[in-house]
Amino acid sequence: MRETLSPLFSEEQIGESGMDRLQPGETNHWFKELVNDSPVAIYSCDKQGYITFFNQAAATLWGRQPDCGEDRWCGSWKIYYPNGTPMILDKCPMARALIENMPDEGEEVTIERPDHTFRNLLVFPRPLLDNRNVIVGVHNTLVDITEQKKGEEKQAILSAIVESSDDAIISKTLEGIITSWNAGAQKIFGYTEEEVLGKSILILIPNALRTEENSIISDIKAGKKVDHFHTMRLAKSGKQIPISLTVSPIKDRQGRIIGASKIARDISERLDTEYTIEQSAQRLGILNAIGKTISEKLDGQSILQLVTDATTRITGADFGAFFYNTVDEHGDACMLLALSGAPLEAFEKFGIPQNTSVFFPAFSSGGVARIDDIRKDPRYGKNAPHYWVPKGHPPVVSYLAVPLIASSGAVIGGLFFGHPGPAMFTAEHEDTVVSVASQTAVALENAKLFDEVKTLSAKKDGFIALASHELKTPLTTIKGYLQILEKKETETAGKLFIERTLTQVNKLNSLVSDLFDISKIEIGTLQLYCETFDVRELIFEIIETFHYLNRTHQIIFRDPGRALFIEADKQRMEQVMINLVSNAIKYSPGANIVRIIVEHTDTTVTVKIKDEGIGLSPIQKKKIFTRFYRAEEASDIAGLGLGLYLTKEIIERHHGTIDVSSELGEGSEFFFSLPLKST
Ligand code: ADP
């Protein structure tokens, strides 16, 4: 092993160097200690470049112990130019200082250590001359600037970030004096760096908000950060800008708070977007609600009122009105049907907007009129009798008129909106109202159709009531005469014909009665004449009747053996039983049995009429109690589809229920329940 630290200078060199007050031995020893303990890296080479000495600081910097007398020029593992190009050892600053006999003042090099870490150095090689000025070697002082370089790089990156940021990044003292100002700040607030450096931050704060600064500064002094604080700041132009502010304390090396850095983000665009989204969502919500409500409503006036109210709200109009395009008895071609945001009196006395050239298009060709400032419209002021917005009329500057067009292309009417401010109605408002108007036109047409259907239906009910009433009178007379004839006739053949004619007249009579009953139900005049009777008695009478009328089916009745009293209209209950039993016979052409079963609880009696006939599908079961419904399978069997409807009405008027259980091809069981008369 070589000695790590060799003598820096020979004793003769020291003796000649002027340090003659010390003894040569002492001097060398003194130097050795001084240089070796120095925190500055120092080493020397001889004339051939072989390292003759290095101190501990140099060895630490290199990350290795070079071999004195073997390693040349530099003790590091590798050496590079600052740009990273490897440096040839013979061209290193140390070699050049020796060759050129010139000191080098702080050239920068990069060294690599055996562990592949790098250090940046400033080197100061100087030739060593003896007292004859002959070069005997060279020594070098190495200054480690690695941390400084890193700091500079970091600083450069930070500066680039600050400069390229769209946000305003500003620093200020605790007294509020601006100390730095980036390009983002200039863009947002309009001041250049020169204009604001040294000025108070208050130039950016609107008067009304100046107290904010005190509270921000006191937070900063307390070491607190102000995070995403939404406020307003003042630009050079005087415009107020909404910003999101983050303010953090700036500390010195000792950790003392010496100022604040603030990042201000211009959030006007974000707020605009948020506002637009909120508006659109609100509009969509209203539109949905309108769509739903008008599709459910069938009354034109309330549809129009709802649409006028909602569109007035959506457009932010001061008032909204719907004018109907019609000719009334005075020859006026338009009628105010709905108004929103203003009292009716505010409009009543003013004619109709359709007559003015400004609004005529909305009523005639169906075009939309959106006017930002009616006072600037060339057509304004030229329409009699008011010429301008009439006196007493709500003040209007912005107008929007949207027609309602029917599917035939005819203009049903128009929605009108007014606002006292200019340019209040946007293209978006127009689109929204146009789409509501087209939905409304459809809804109004539906409402009109519904009205027509209602009128027709009322006419039909009136006709049925009249016709059945008119038919009933001659039928009763015919029946009376036939009964007299039947009694007088002695001939067997004649008796048979009269009997058959009577059967047909009875059928006709029952059909006409059904029609008559239906009309009574519709107009609410079906009367009940209630009495107390035993249900079983009624059933026996019905069986008796069918015994004569029907020759195909046997009616089987299991008598429960005790009286079951109900309070009901006996004739109507007879009608119910006849209906259900004759249906059971009619719709079971291939069978010959109909069963009547009576069950009861303490409070109700249930009568079941069961057949073995054609049965009903689940869908048919749901429909058979409605007016005029007839199952497909029953098309060959005579009927009007009124019997079950009447039956259900009669049962329900008696506070009872009726239903059916059946399967197609498997027969049916109709059953109704009625309350028993309490004893
Ligand atoms: P109508 O018998 O005059 O057609 P109803 O109102 O009495 O009128 O009956 C309505 C429809 O219900 C019938 O057309 C028939 O399709 C069905 N229906 C009624 N009773 C039965 C039954 N017992 N079995 C099968 N279908 C029936």
List keywords for this structure.
679 residues, alpha+beta, Beta-Lactamase, seven-stranded antiparallel beta sheet, 18 helices, 24 strands, 40% helix, elongated, disordered N terminus, binds adenosine-5'-diphosphate
Topology:
Blueprint (H helix, E strand, L loop, with lengths): L10 H5 L8 H14 L3 E6 L4 E4 L1 H7 L15 E3 L12 H8 L6 E6 L5 E6 L2 E4 L5 E10 L1 H19 L3 E6 L4 E4 L1 H7 L3 H4 L14 H11 L4 E9 L5 E12 L5 E10 L1 H29 L3 H16 L3 E7 L8 E7 L4 H4 L11 H5 L4 E3 L26 E8 L5 E9 L7 H62 L3 H32 L6 E5 H15 L4 E5 L6 E5 H17 L6 E8 L3 E8 L6 H6 L19 H11 L3 E6 L5 E8 L4
Helix pairs in contact: 9-10, 9-13, 10-13, 13-14, 16-18
The structure holds adenosine-5'-diphosphate.
The site of adenosine-5'-diphosphate has 22 residues, from α16 and α18.
Summed up, the domain count is 5
Bound molecules: adenosine-5'-diphosphate
Give me the count of strands. Answer: 24
- The CATH architecture of the largest domain comes to 2-Layer Sandwich
Bin the helical content.
40-55%
Distance N to C terminus: 133 Å
The shape, in one word, is elongated
CATH classification, class level of the largest domain = Alpha Beta
Radius of gyration: 55 Å
Query: Largest sheet, if any?
Result: 7 strands, antiparallel
For the residues shown, what is the average pLDDT? 86
The CATH topology of the largest domain comes to Beta-Lactamase
CATH homologous superfamily classification of the largest domain: GAF domain
Give the structural class: alpha+beta
Poorly predicted tracts of residues: 1-7, 10-22
Which range does the strand content fall in? 15-25%
